[in-house]
Design a protein that fits this description.
Blueprint lengths: L3 E10 L2 E11 L4 E5 L6 H9 L6 E6 L2 E2 L5 H6 L2 E3 L12 H11 L6 H11 L15 H14 L4 E5 L7 H16 L3 E5 L3 H7 L2 E6 L2 E6 L1 H4 L3 H8 L2
Parallel strand pairs: 3-8, 3-9, 6-7, 7-8
Antiparallel strand pairs: 1-2, 1-4, 4-5, 9-10
Helix pairs in contact: 3-4, 3-5, 4-5
The chain binds adenosine-5'-diphosphate and magnesium ion (MG).
Protein name: ABC transporter ATP-binding protein
Keywords: ATP-binding, Nucleotide-binding, Transport
GO molecular function: ATP binding
Length: 235
Amino acid sequence: MASLRTDGVTVVFGGNRALDEAGFEAEAGRITGLIGPNGAGKSTLFDVVSGLRRPQSGTVTLDGHDITRATPAQRARRGMARTFQRLELFGRLTVRDNLLVAAELGARGRNSARTADGILQRIGLTADADTAADALPTGAARLLEVGRALAGRPRVLLLDEPAAGQDADETRRFAALLRDVAAEGCAVVLVEHDMGLVMSVCDQVYVLDLGRIVACGPPADIQQDQTVLAAYLGE
Ligand code: ADP
Ligand code: MG
């Protein structure tokens, strides 16, 4: 059974259908990619899934529970975490304190300092632990944002363009981190423009165009799909 599922999600802004009956599934232990041109509706779909935007129609299901009307906090308590395309770090806090705050919020009796230190290692930022978050280069800041999401030990992790601004080395390490997180049983959903990353880490890829899911399948199939090429290249 899918951990996370949307069915028939429609969001209209003015006369613009940002999402048009969009349905996708993300399974525990898998990395599910969500790709599509700018304006396709990827971030809006994350907003609906994380509870920041109520769809005009459609449903969101988490582990078989209908959470369409749940608040973002209720979804977080059920194990959902997300990152934002526009970073939402505490700029003046250090890297470590950003993780500590997130770890405290998701503590549930665990030792927050230990959680924070473990994540520092996982995201490869131990050497930057005492650096203020707003002094980090973009690639590292994105890793920290992912680290904050991981501090709550999510069962569903939504990542909105996490590799933007990462160099090749950071992206390689990031891919390994995503595989580890999925291997621990998390359902990872990855919105990303770096096709090399998407095609190398994802088990399943959905393609959004003008608010509609136009294709879905394993990366090898998606790369051959004429509808997908048309959506991207306007052919
Ligand atoms: P993506 O993340 O795939 O680039 P978005 O979900 O950000 O796409 O946007 C999908 C469509 O919805 C675009 O046409 C965008 O202009 C529009 N849109 C997104 N957010 C809003 C908003 N708050 N108000 C009006 N239109 C919006
Ligand atoms: Mg977006």
